[in-house]
Amino acid sequence: MNIATPLLRFPELPTEIVIHILSFACNTSHHTALNISLVSTWARQLVLPCVFSTVVRRAGNTGGYAHLLPPGTCDVSKYVRHLWIETIDMMSSPGELSIFNLCTNIEDVALTAGSLRLLYNSTLFGKRKGKGIHTVGAASRIRSVTLTKHTFRYDWHFLVDLHSTSDTHASLLGNITHLRLTDMEKSPYIPLEYLPNLTHLALPYLQLRANNRGDVLRIPDIVTPSKLEMIVLAVDEFEWLMKPWRHGAHAREDSPRELFKSLRNHARGRDKRIHAVLSPRFGQDICGEWAAAVRGNEDSVWELAEKMSGREEYGDELPSAFPRVST
Questions:
Q1: How many CA atoms within 13 Å lie on the side-chain side of 210?
Q2: pLDDT tens, 80-126?
Q3: Quick one: which of 3, 10, 16, 126 has the fewest CB in 10 Å?
């Protein structure tokens, strides 16, 4: 007995509906977008903006930069809007600069402080070319910056000195409205004086040497700038649960759930612009969280802070007691 079921012909649909279905699928999953790009030439052209809108290059990749944007791919570099790029050492490589020179429409970038000068070099490169796809540098469109390593004052002062005689200063630093610092272990510096139009700032709470007793928010004087609309204290959930001593908790007596809720209440009590959120969540790193957010699969740290503002149940998912860590 032949139980095979004949394949049904895909129903004839208007082209507009097919395009809408494929576009929806691509926006839902980056992996799906990659699969659709293999279907046909026209399908590939359709999904290219989704496939290349976000580019992630982690430190330690051995393939160089050719696998990101191979030679002759200027036609796809224009689709890159979000770029996560890491370096192993302090200095940037020529390959990194070539990525910035090609991708002139970047709006959101995550990089190390040592790579900040790439933004300057890219802007100068754009001004020198003056024609074709290099009319403007990548830095002139960037609005959001995530620093994956600690930063010092000279990392930013270097940019200001170079731009002292150029209008590039305004386009490079003046356009940045969102800044997230993910590492403040070695340096507590926050470059507020160099970012005149900054409205959103996120800091790693557990690296601020703060605690949940007494003056709970022992943080730098960051609430003075009037243009700051939101200050996010990002609480690494793994660190919060597994290393309670970092925030002054007693593992046997305190509740991580109640301490987090107390932190939120203290933050709101000090300034309504300050929000405490769990980020990254347990089992997730900052890069994965960032990539999911820019691809629209999860809320960004800013969206999460706004959404959870005033919601008392936020944090209920945390355990009532700290996990016991075997020694």
A1: 25
A2: 999 998 875 555 555 676 777 778 889 999 998 878 877 766 666 55
A3: 3
Cα 70 to the center of its chain, rounded Å? 24
Cα–Cα distance measured from residue 326 to residue 166, given in angstroms and rounded to the nearest whole number: 58
Strands 230-235 vs 274-278: parallel, antiparallel or unpaired:
parallel
User: What are the distances in angstroms from CA 51 to CA 20, 39, 46, 59, 77?
Assistant: 16, 14, 10, 21, 11
Overall average pLDDT of the 284-291 stretch? 94
**Rounded to the nearest 10 degrees, how much is the dihedral formed by the CA atoms of 208, 210, 212, 216?**
-100
Q: How many residues belong to the chain?
A: 327
CB 304 within 8 A of CB 277: yes
Buried/exposed 87-103: b ≥16 CB within 10 Å, e otherwise? beeeebeeebbbbbbbb
**DSSP-assigned states of every residue in 167-184:** THHHHHTTT--EEEE---
In angstroms, what is the C-alpha Rg of the chain?
23
Whole-angstrom distance, CA of residue 279 vs CA of residue 307 = 14
Phi, psi of 31 (to 5 degrees): -65, -40
- 30, amino acid identity: H
Say what percent of the chain tops pLDDT 90: 29
Question: What one-letter code names the amino acid at 298?
Answer: E
Q: How many CA atoms lie less than 13 Å away from 276 in the CB half-sphere?
A: 28
